[in-house]
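> example.struct
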């Protein structure tokens, strides 16, 4: 091959290969109900019947109550 032919091949468009196989996207993951997985960790969840917090109470007969956790240690004044 001559130098001109090698240089021309360097800028040639790549050749595509075709096949008859169908391409499919993977199935989307199934999202579970939040209560079925357990409540999210950014909040605490309280159940009134039976009374207690998740994960100590696994099943609640009523709707879970979302509670903002109090992360202030005992004896420390809030906001100061």
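> example.seq
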């Amino acid at each position: 091959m001559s130098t001109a032919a090698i240089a021309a091949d360097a800028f040639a468009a790549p050749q595509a290969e075709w096949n008859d196989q169908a391409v499919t996207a993977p199935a989307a993951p199934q999202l579970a109900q939040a209560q079925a997985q357990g409540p999210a960790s950014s909040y605490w969840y309280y159940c009134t019947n039976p009374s207690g917090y998740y994960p100590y109470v696994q099943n609640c007969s009523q709707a879970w109550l979302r509670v903002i956790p109090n992360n202030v240690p005992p004896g420390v004044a809030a906001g100061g």
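> remarks
DSSP finds two helices and three strands in the chain.
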